Amino acid sequence: MYNYQLLFGHELTALSCAGAALTLSGMIIYQNSEIIVAYIDTRRARTPTA
């Protein structure tokens, strides 16, 4: 946690780390949404239906 303390000036809590991780993952999903949808579509097409 010392690296975060130097970067932000105070110690980050688990909740703030989780919030930062969720924000970054949301940005990645938003930027790559077309790739993710295409991947899901190809997976669904390969899955045999019963």
Calculate the mean pLDDT score and round it.
Answer: 83
Give the biggest beta sheet: none
Topology as a string of helices (H) and strands (E): HHH
Radius of gyration: 18 Å
Query: Helix share of residues?
Result: over 70%
Taking the alpha carbons of the first and last residues, their distance comes to 50 Å
Fill in the keyword field for this structure.
50 residues, elongated, 78% helix
Topology, pairings included?
Elements: H1 2-8, H2 14-31, H3 33-46
Task: Tell me what the structure shows.
- This protein is mostly helical.
- It has one domain.
- 78% of the residues lie in helices and 0% in strands.
- It contains three helices and no strands.
- The protein has helices at 2-8, 14-31, 33-46.
- The longest helix is centred in the middle third of the chain and has 18 residues, at 14-31.
- It is elongated.
- The termini are far apart.
Compose a concise summary of this entry:
The protein has helices spanning 2-8, 14-31, 33-46.
